[in-house]
């Protein structure tokens, strides 16, 4: 069908646009050249959650390194309330790490950036009125342990002289330093539990028990530390930050020893590897 001049002018813009999109060959082509656009960062597997390694690093450095903590917060401000599970629900925030280690400068940096103040940080910082108010609002909260099972009283002790008034108040309560009962073991007794254990399931995680420089037994699962073990008696231990969990050994004989981890139910059984 022949087109008039007016008809051609009406149809031509749309036809030209289609030609720009499809090209002469009919294949789709870009209207805008984005060859100079910056490359996008690959989307992480756990997006939109913060990457686990970044969360763990911030919580870790907030025990000791303010410069690295500041670098991470400058680059990733949303990490300020980062929380890491060290094993069996032993959760620790970045602020919690600074609090139980007495790192006042790191705690103040985190609070400036928007961290949520809790009773443990308040105790370390010497905010006596805040600690009093929290306990008045929730009687008995002073007995609640912090990360790794560290009691509230120890946080005030970590605060040094600026927290002296808070420490005196908590000591007056008589129960702010309570820890779970444990049975002491000599170093040679502890060594009887040290070693590697293979899970009875074909694809189960590997378990290792180590003795650190402080004389503590350390539980490691798949190469990652999963807690400092406290002896509850009868060849039974619990991770310091998860007192409801039990790590049970069949005995102290390294030649015929098995290990069972119970987290409400039996979750892992392993046999010693020679």
Q: How would you summarize the topology of this molecule?
A:
Layout: H1 5-22, H2 52-61, H3 66-75, E1 83-85, E2 91-93, H4 94-100, H5 104-112, H6 119-125, H7 128-137, H8 152-158, H9 164-173, H10 187-191, E3 195-199, E4 207-211, E5 217-221, E6 224-233, E7 236-239, E8 246-249, E9 258-263, E10 265-273
Antiparallel strand pairs: 1-2, 3-4, 3-10, 4-5, 5-6, 6-7, 7-8, 8-9, 9-10
Helix pairs in contact: 2-4, 4-5, 4-6, 6-8, 8-9
Briefly characterize the structure:
It is built from ten helices and ten strands. With 274 residues, it is an alpha+beta fold. The chain is flat and about 55 Å long.
Category from helices, strands and their pairing? alpha+beta
- Straight-line N-to-C gap: 90 Å
Order of helices and strands: HHHEEHHHHHHHEEEEEEEE
How many separate helices?
10
Strand order of the largest sheet: 3-4-5-6-7-8-9-10
Mind telling me the C-alpha Rg?
29 Å
Give the low-confidence spans: 15-30
Amount of helix: 25-40%
Work out the number of β strands: 10
Q: Roughly what fraction of the amino acids lie in strands?
A: 15-25%
Biggest beta-sheet profile:
8 strands, antiparallel, barrel
Shape: flat
How confident overall, as mean pLDDT? Answer: 87
